[in-house]
C-alpha cells in the first residue's frame, strides 16, 4: 500500500493542464487565468480629488483666507475653464483636479457665503489629491497562472479588460455503482439505499470550479459498468464510486481494465479510503473511490479537489493543514493514516480539535456535523489531551 502523499503525487502525474478559452469577465470569478493580462489604461487616469471640498493652489490654502469660487468639478464632469490665482472651485470626490490646482480643502474646513469661501483657522494639512497612475499604469501585468478571486476580477475590470484567457473547466463524470442504489426521490426497495456520494462529490467539485455529469447508476455487472464507462467519454476525469474492494461484486477494476484501463495503483495506507485506485482510461484519468459514503467524500477532499489545481496548471498544492490542540485523548493509530472527522473551534489561545466519537466511514451525519479532518500519521502513538495535532478544515 502506498502512502497518501505518494497517491496524491501519482494521480497528479496522470493529469495534464487543460487548454485555455476566452471567458467574459463577468464569468471569470474562480477561474484560472491562463496567460497574463495587461492594463489597457492607467488608473486613475487624471489627478483625482479624494474628498468633497474646494480645490485651489496650495499657496492660497492659508487658514482664515477668503477665496471666490469660480466653478465646479464633479465625478464624470470635469471643470474645463481656467482658475485664476487666488480663486477656488467647488470639487467633489472622484472629480479631476484641474491644473495647476494642487490642494483640496475639505468642506468641513470651510465656511461658505454665496460665491466665496473662508478657510477655517485650522485646516487639514493633506492635499487630498490622488496622483495619476497611483493604482496602476497602462501595460501593468497580472501574472498567470492564477486563480481569480473577487479582488482580481475588480482589478481586471478597472484595467479595461472585458474578456480574458482562462483554463477551461474540467469535465468530470461521476459514476455511482451498486445493485443496492436508487436515486434520491425514487422508490427504495427493502434491500436498497439511496445513492448519496455522487451528489456530495458533485457539490464539492462544482464549488471548486469543475463541471460534473452524474451518469446513470451502474449495476454490479462488468457489462453494465462498461456501458456506463462508455457514457463517460469526453470527460477529463472519470470518478467511480464503490465496487472497489475485494468482494465478489466489486467489479469496477475488472470492468475498467476490460475497457482499457491502465492501472497506476490500487490501495493506499489511508483510513478511510484504503481501496482507492487510479489509472488512465482512453483520454481520461480514472479514479476509483471506495463506496462508503464518508470514504468517498474524504477521498474527494484529499485527492479530487487538489487535482482541479493540477488540471488548471497550478500544480499540486500541499495539503492545507494547521496545528490544533487536542481536547481529548486518543489511543494509538494503526498502519494507515487516519483522517478523522473532527470539530475544530477557535479559542483565544488558538485552534482546538475534538475528534468525533464515532469514526465509522458510513456515517454522513457525523461528517456533516464536522468541520475538519484530524490527520494522524500511520503508527501515531497514543495522544493526550493538550497534544498538538494536524487538522484540515472542511
Ligand atoms: N474483506 C474485506 N472487505 C472490505 C475491505 C477489505 O479490505 N477487505 N475494505 C473495506 C473498506 S475499507 C471499504 S471503504 C469498503 C469499500 O468497498 P467498495 O468500494 O467496494 O464499496 P461497496 O462495497 O460498493 O460499498 C460500500 C458501502 O457503501 C455503500 N455505497 C456504495 N456506493 C454508494 C453511493 N454512491 N452512495 C451511498 N452509499 C454507497 C454501499 O451500499 C455499501 O454499504 O469495503 C470494505 N470491505
Ligand atoms: O477505507 Mo474504508 O474507506 O476504511 O471505510
Automatic annotation (TrEMBL):
InterPro entries registered for this protein in UniProt: MoaB/Mog-like_dom_sf, MoaB/Mog_dom, MoeA-like, MoeA_C_domain_IV, MoeA_C_domain_IV_sf, MoeA_linker/N, MoeA_linker/N_sf
Enzyme class at the top of the EC tree: transferase
Function of the protein: Catalyzes the insertion of molybdate into adenylated molybdopterin with the concomitant release of AMP.
Organism: Oceanomicrobium pacificus
Biological or metabolic pathway of the protein: Cofactor biosynthesis; molybdopterin biosynthesis
Name of protein: Molybdopterin molybdenumtransferase
Swiss-Prot/TrEMBL GO biological process terms: Mo-molybdopterin cofactor biosynthetic process
Alphabetical list of Gene3D superfamilies matching this protein: MoaB/Mog-like domain, MoeA, C-terminal, domain IV, Molybdopterin biosynthesis moea protein, domain 2, Molybdopterin biosynthesis moea protein, domain 3
NCBIfam families associated with the record: Glp_gephyrin
Reaction catalyzed: adenylyl-molybdopterin + molybdate = Mo-molybdopterin + AMP + H(+)
Residues of the MoaB/Mog domain: 173-310
Keywords: Magnesium, Metal-binding, Molybdenum, Molybdenum cofactor biosynthesis, Transferase
Family label: Belongs to the MoeA family.
EC code: 2.10.1.1
Lineage: superkingdom: Bacteria
Amino acid at each position: 500500500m502506498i502512502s497518501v502523499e505518494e497517491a496524491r503525487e501519482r494521480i497528479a502525474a496522470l493529469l495534464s493542464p487543460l487548454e485555455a478559452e476566452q471567458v467574459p469577465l463577468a464569468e471569470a470569478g474562480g477561474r484560472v487565468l491562463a496567460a497574463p493580462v495587461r492594463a489597457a489604461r492607467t488608473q486613475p487616469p487624471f489627478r483625482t480629488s479624494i474628498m468633497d471640498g474646494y480645490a485651489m493652489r496650495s499657496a492660497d490654502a492659508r487658514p482664515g483666507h477668503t477665496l471666490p469660487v469660480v466653478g465646479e468639478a464633479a465625478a464624470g464632469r470635469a471643470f474645463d475653464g481656467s482658475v485664476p490665482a487666488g480663486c477656488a472651485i467647488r470639487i467633489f470626490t472622484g472629480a479631476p483636479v484641474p491644473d495647476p490646482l494642487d490642494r483640496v480643502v475639505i468642506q468641513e474646513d470651510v465656511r461658505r457665503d454665496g460665491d466665496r469661501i473662508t478657510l477655517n483657522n485650522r485646516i487639514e494639512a493633506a492635499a487630498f489629491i490622488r496622483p495619476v497612475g497611483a493604482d496602476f499604469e497602462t501595460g501593468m501585468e497580472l501574472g498567470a497562472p492564477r486563480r481569480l478571486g473577487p479582488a482580481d476580477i475588480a482589478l481586471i475590470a478597472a484595467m479595461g479588460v472585458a474578456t480574458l484567457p482562462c483554463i477551461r473547466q474540467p469535465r468530470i463524470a461521476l459514476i455511482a455503482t451498486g445493485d443496492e442504489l436508487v436515486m434520491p426521490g425514487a422508490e427504495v426497495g427493502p434491500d436498497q439505499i439511496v445513492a448519496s456520494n455522487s451528489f456530495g462529490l458533485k457539490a464539492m467539485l462544482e464549488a471548486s470550479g469543475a463541471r460534473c455529469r452524474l451518469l446513470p447508476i451502474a449495476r454490479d455487472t462488468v457489462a453494465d459498468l462498461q456501458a456506463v464507462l462508455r457514457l463517460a467519454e469526453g470527460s477529463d476525469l472519470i470518478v467511480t464510486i464503490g465496487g472497489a474492494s475485494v468482494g465478489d461484486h466489486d467489479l469496477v477494476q475488472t470492468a475498467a481494465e476490460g475497457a482499457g484501463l491502465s492501472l497506476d495503483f490500487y490501495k493506499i495506507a489511508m483510513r478511510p479510503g484504503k481501496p482507492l485506485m487510479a489509472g488512465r482510461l482512453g483520454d481520461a484519468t480514472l479514479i476509483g473511490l471506495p463506496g462508503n459514503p464518508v470514504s468517498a467524500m474524504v477521498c474527494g477532499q484529499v485527492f479530487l479537489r487538489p487535482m482541479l489545481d493540477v488540471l488548471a496548471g497550478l500544480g499540486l498544492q500541499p495539503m492545507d493543514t494547521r496545528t490544533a490542540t487536542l481536547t481529548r485523548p486518543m489511543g494509538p493509530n494503526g498502519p494507515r493514516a487516519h483522517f478523522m472527522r473532527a470539530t475544530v473551534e477557535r479559542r483565544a489561545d488558538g485552534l482546538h480539535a475534538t475528534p468525533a466519537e464515532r469514526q465509522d466511514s458510513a456515517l454522513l451525519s457525523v461528517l456533516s456535523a464536522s468541520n475538519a479532518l484530524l490527520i494522524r500519521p500511520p503508527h501515531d502513538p497514543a495522544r493526550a489531551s493538550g497534544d498538538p495535532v494536524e487538522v484540515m478544515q472542511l
